[in-house]
UniProtKB/TrEMBL annotation:
MF terms in GO: zinc ion binding
PROSITE patterns membership: ZF_MYND_2 (PS50865)
Domain of life: Eukaryota
UniProt source species: Trametes pubescens (White-rot fungus)
Name of this chain's protein: MYND-type domain-containing protein
Lineage per the UniProt record: Eukaryota, Fungi, Dikarya, Basidiomycota, Agaricomycotina
């Protein structure tokens, strides 16, 4: 078969762009001819894909003699041949012009994608082709089941109760049964007493609603090597950067309306049937939506998420912020949503920091498809990503939005600093809200794991302290409520009390070195791609966190209710306001403008 010769003849009838057209279909008399041309073109490209080395040489000679008038029809290698084949096969499947070559092309491509770890259903605009393959396998499985039943009679409808959990409605008649409308095997197909139960159970049944594999695995030609290059090529060419609209003919058999893979119907009309003269079929315009324009097959799309969050992220905060006596503009009604965005951004950059080499390859591919603004672009996939994660986590901590993502990013940064032999409290003062959040989390975790002190109030029975801990004071309050407990983050088993607030302030300098919670959260080990050396230390603290010309840090924060005003690490309050709480309706919060002083001289 001269594949290139056939394609040259079919060129006037083949329309590669027709599947994305929303203007309508060609005249009814031409559609049938065009669908036949598409099937022949799919067969030609499939033969070129499966060609042996001898046939490849002959095909190259044909391609030189028969130059295609349309450059879009040229396929330089076997992989591009199969991509062209599924294009034409899908156009025929959209019009329900199902022929054997259409099913063979779909099954071949499905087996090829499975070998490189992809799912064909991720290429949503080809859903009619995948549905045709599954429907064919379902019909083959039903035929096989009926043949076995003729040889040895079995119960055709074994279930006599509704398959929906918690429903025991009896199925008294065949007309009342509601079977699953999917392509699951006939002998395992669930039945329901109503469409309501069927819709309720669909979320649990969806994963198993597929037919048994009835077609033999396709043997790939020797010229095709399933590898990362092929995977990247499929993702780049088959996943569009936006929603796809295409015209389809509704199949005559039952359509599972619960299956979201069927797309969204935009417009419906009737047209003459392509196969049966005198009959009409229902034609629809469907829209297939891809998440962020691409599907990452279970892998988090970091750059895609950051690109969507970019309008909510503002990294121009921190150093040299000056506000008037009026209320700061950062406290708005949308602060809750903005803080959620910063929390998600911190987690996204944390995933970049901890990415394995395989995921770094996928992240690099995402970065090409989703170009980020300069303010969100991390030059280094490790240290820069961790700094960006800490930036967004600290901004959320300033507004008292303490989420697991904030603690995760802050803990990773703190642990890396400890591996480098640095003190975060002295080196990075502008992250003080983040460090306080980590200490608060450690204390909360300790109190949860060891709650006996709070339940039994063991502090009353600690023999180590019977009187006020302040030097030179031996007073003991008569009432439990009169005791002034330390307001720091130390654990309950070593938290001291005083007879008055004056004694608490007097003893703070002595108690300061002990006022830290026990480390109960596991230390995060830096990923293998991070080199713990002086170079990383310089990049982390000198070159990135303190831009040139910035010597002091001034930032707006929401003061927590249990803040220890004696702790110098809290910075100096320059201005303060009482504003409505952005999180709890009807309450107020104390918003302050803090100054954390100059940098430590060892970190210049």
């Amino acid at each position: 078969m001269c594949a290139d010769g056939a394609l040259s003849v079919l060129a006037p009838l083949i329309q590669l762009g027709g599947k994305y057209s929303t203007s309508g279909l060609p005249p009814d008399t031409q559609v049938h001819v065009i669908m036949k041309a598409n099937c022949i073109a799919a067969c030609a490209y499939l033969r070129k894909f499966k060609a042996t080395p001898e046939r490849v040489s002959a095909a190259e000679l044909d391609a030189q003699r028969l130059t295609s008038p349309d450059g879009a029809l040229r396929a330089p290698d076997a992989v591009n041949c199969i991509l062209h084949a599924i294009d034409y096969a899908n156009q025929a499947a959209c019009m329900q012009f199902i022929r054997r070559v259409v099913l063979l092309v779909g099954a071949t491509f499905r087996d090829l994608t499975e070998r490189i770890g992809l799912d064909v259903w991720s290429f949503k605009q080809y859903a009619p082709l995948w549905h045709a393959v599954e429907r064919c396998e379902y019909e083959l499985s039903v035929k096989k089941y009926l043949e076995e039943w003729r040889k040895k009679p079995v119960v055709l409808f074994p279930a006599k109760v509704c398959a929906s959990p918690g429903c025991f409605g009896c199925l008294e008649g065949k007309d009342q049964w509601e079977p699953c409308c999917g392509n699951c095997a006939w002998d395992r197909k669930p039945w329901y007493c109503s469409s309501t139960c069927r819709a309720k159970e669909w979320e649990n049944h969806r994963a198993s609603c597929k037919p048994p594999r009835a077609m033999w695995p396709v043997k790939l030609p020797s010229s095709v090597a399933p590898d990362w290059n092929m995977r990247d090529l499929f993702i780049r060419k088959l996943v569009p950067n936006g929603p796809v609209e295409q015209i389809e003919v509704v199949p005559k058999d039952v359509v599972n309306t619960l299956d979201t893979r069927n797309g969204t119907v935009v417009w419906v009309w009737d047209m003459p049937s392509l196969c049966v003269p005198g009959e009409t079929v229902q034609c629809v315009l469907k829209r297939y939506t891809h998440l962020l324009g691409r599907d990452t097959y279970g892998r988090p799309c970091i750059d895609g998420a950051l690109l969507e969050l970019a309008p909510l992220l503002d990294r121009h905060y921190g150093g040299n912020l000056k506000y008037s006596a009026a209320a700061p503009r950062v406290i708005t009604h949308a602060l809750d949503i903005i803080m959620k965005a910063h929390s998600l951004a911190a987690y996204a950059y944390f995933l970049k920091y901890t990415a394995t080499p395989d995921r770094q390859r996928g992240a690099a591919d995402d970065a090409q498809h989703f170009p980020l603004p300069a303010a969100l672009r991390a030059d280094d996939a490790t240290v820069d990503s961790l700094i960006y994660a800490a930036d967004h986590a600290n901004f959320a901590a300033c507004m008292q939005f303490i989420s697991p993502a904030v603690l995760l990013a802050g803990g990773a940064f703190r642990d890396l600093a400890e591996y480098l032999g640095l003190d975060v409290w002295s080196g990075i003062k502008r992250y003080a809200p983040l460090w306080f959040a980590l200490e608060w989390a450690n204390r909360q975790t300790f109190d949860t794991k060891f709650p006996a002190g709070w339940v039994l109030d063991m502090r009353e029975y600690l023999t180590a302290q019977a009187v006020c801990l302040a030097p030179g004071c031996d007073q003991s309050p008569g009432q439990k409520e009169d005791k002034q407990w330390c307001r720091g983050t130390c654990a309950w088993d070593c938290k001291p009390w005083y007879c008055s607030d004056k004694c608490r302030r007097k003893d703070w300098e002595n108690h300061l070195q002990y006022c830290t919670p026990p480390r109960v959260i596991a230390v995060e080990i830096p990923p293998p791609c991070v080199t713990v050396d002086q170079s990383t230390r310089d990049v982390l603290f000198r070159d990135k966190l303190y831009p040139e010309g910035v010597s002091e840090v001034t930032q707006v924060e929401i003061m927590p209710d249990d803040a220890n005003e004696l702790d110098a690490r809290n910075g100096t309050i320059q201005e303060e306001w009482e504003l409505p709480s952005p999180y709890v309706f009807g309450e107020t919060v104390k918003v302050v403008l803090k100054n954390y002083g100059p940098r430590h001289p060892n970190y210049k």
